[in-house]
Amino acid sequence: MEDTVKTGSEVLMNTYGRIPVVFDRGEGVYLYDDKGNKYLDFVAGIAVNALGYNDEGLNNALSEQMKKLYHVSNLYYTKANVEAAKLLVDNSKLDRVFFCNSGAEATEAALKLSRLYAYKFKNKETKIIAMKNSFHGRTFGSITATGQLKYQKGLGPILPDVTHVDFMDYEALEKEARSGACGIILEPVQGEGGIRPATKEFLQKVRKLCDELDILLIFDEVQCGIGRTGYLFAYEYFDVVPDVVAMAKGLGGGFPIGAILVSEDKAKGFEPGNHASTFGGNALASTASKYVVNKILNEGILDNVKEQGEYLKSKLESLKEKYPFITDVRGVGLMLGMELEFPVADIINSALSKGLLLLNSGVNIIRFVPPLIVSKGDIDNCIEILDGILDEI
């Protein structure tokens, strides 16, 4: 491990505060480092590894596709790409798919689409309304939409004509929208902003407003989508259908892929020459996505998310009752947060030393985003370790 960590610190750019652990392999909801130590993983690659590790079916699907094609570019069709797109369309209330490689690229595509649609079919409005405390990615467009100044420091000038309102403040959002806008982008459950779900009522009012003003409603489901709420898409949980869904993370179960899913009417904002992605929806990524979505839909995983999400939340609520310094437990499905009165970094480090991987969301919040295949036994093990750490506090 020492050689890998030392070499990595010398050759990798310093963009992550990396923990000096070298992971070697995974199995189910567990990771193993290069010394053979075992870790219960409630991070899942930051809500990416939906099926955990070493899923035999995913391994086989990718292996078979690798023997045929990796990539041919989007100048042509591939069966894997078309089948992956059709699977998303057939299981949603939207109509067209654009594939890319990441969540930031997906939100970037959604932002471009909102302006192009207004340019071609409306009054050329350019304003995009986003939420404070949001996170949408690290590219210039997506980081401009991100409503946290710490991510934008030193990057100015950033994309013009993007404004932010308080999350869940409908009056402020309506005022901005009525003064002219082409798009509204929001996370149904804010992820990096502290695991904060919107209310159904708020989202339904925003949907009506967008219908009235012909503004594209974009749901950033990069973290909260692809089964994490107990529904394939988070919008189903909230009973609100947006014009655009941006997705990535769990979509490939660990294989890099992103996408936007768009209504037929709004999809006409894109035409050849407006947007593209060389690697987007390549045969390997499409094969991974097709397998992951099929398994989530057809092998009881959505029911497991609902059941285990409620169970994990109840266990976290029990910890809240036991320890007065826990101020809140919130979230949906297997995307939960526990807020404390003080920074959680020491708790996360202590958990690591005891074989449990946890993640923060902001300074004072522990985030729980395990693989969607997690069991009650796994949750009990997590809570037992966490309880011991909190008890010492």
From TrEMBL:
Alphabetical list of PANTHER family matching this protein:
ACETYLORNITHINE AMINOTRANSFERASE, MITOCHONDRIAL, AMINOTRANSFERASE CLASS III
Entry EC no(s)? 2.6.1.11
This protein's source sits in the domain of life called Bacteria
Compartmental location:
Cytoplasm
Miscellaneous:
May also have succinyldiaminopimelate aminotransferase activity, thus carrying out the corresponding step in lysine biosynthesis.
Q: Give the catalytic activity.
A: N(2)-acetyl-L-ornithine + 2-oxoglutarate = N-acetyl-L-glutamate 5-semialdehyde + L-glutamate
User: NCBIfam families annotated for this entry?
Assistant: argD, PRK01278.1
Where is this protein chiefly located? cytoplasm
Gene name, per UniProt, is: argD
Task: Kindly list the cofactors needed.
Answer: pyridoxal 5'-phosphate
Name of the molecule in the record: Acetylornithine aminotransferase
